[in-house]
Amino acid sequence: AQTVxxxxxxxxxxxxxxxxxxxxxDTSESDYYLFWYKQPPSRQMILVIRQEAYKQQNATENRFxxxxxxxxxxxxxxxxxxxxxxxxxYFCAYRSGxxxxxxxxxxxxxxxxxxP
Amino acid sequence: AAGVIQxxxxxxxxxxxxxxxxxxxIPRHDTVYWYQQGPGQDPQxxxxxxxxxxxDKGSIPDRFSAQQFSDYHSELNMSxxxxxxxxxxxxxxxxxxxxxxxxHFGNGTRLTVT
Lengths: 116, 114
Known about the structure:
Chain A is mainly β. Chain A has strands at 3-5, 10-14, 19-21, 24-26, 32-39, 46-52, 60-61, 64-69, 74-79, 88-96, 104-106, 110-115. Chain A is globular, with a radius of gyration of 14 Å. The mean pLDDT of chain A is 94. Chain B has strands at residues 5-7, 10-13, 19-24, 31-37, 44-50, 53-57, 64-68, 74-78, 87-94, 104-105, 109-113. In chain B, strands 2, 4, 5, 6, 9, 10 and 11 form a seven-stranded mixed β-sheet that branches. A four-stranded antiparallel β-sheet of chain B has the order 1-3-8-7, with no helix packed on it. Chain B is globular. The model of chain B has no long low-confidence stretch (mean pLDDT 93). Classes of the chains: A mainly beta, B mainly beta. The interface between A and B is medium-sized, with 29 and 28 residues.
């Protein structure tokens, strides 16, 4: 079974600065997808960014980018120019690409605080 | 754009009662997923349906059952409720059931069992 580990239960960053959230995963599959979801105090689950394992290029979405190290099974999220609205719980997630209807497996989450 | 619709938003039940949660996926999405999130925890996968057939099963108690209907909406039925069932229940949907299509989550149903 695949597992996702987020070793940082809490992180904090000053507004306008950059922060990196860590994530590692374990899988024997070669076809899979990785995601970062954001859960603000409203508890809504919001997709931040996704990465296909077969792509070497790191995904980028505006101020959000990932550092995908496939051999190391590492998938970190970098938030640049942090804003107060970025404060949330961030979940790293894995999804198999080898079966239809496959589940999303989440890490334990990292609570990000943005200080003004 | 249309999103995943869950109802009700909040539900309060007593122990041993029954609850039914409903989920309406994004139009044309054919796969529905149910997750349970306890306080301070990550979402735990319960069950999923692809084209109205159960496609995957996670840590869903035997007291719970779910199905996907012909219009692709899904219902999670929970019986003999226990205090530990109090949680936020998410429904998510995706297209074609492949990994390339990300899961889109509804706003969740907050269930409180007293």
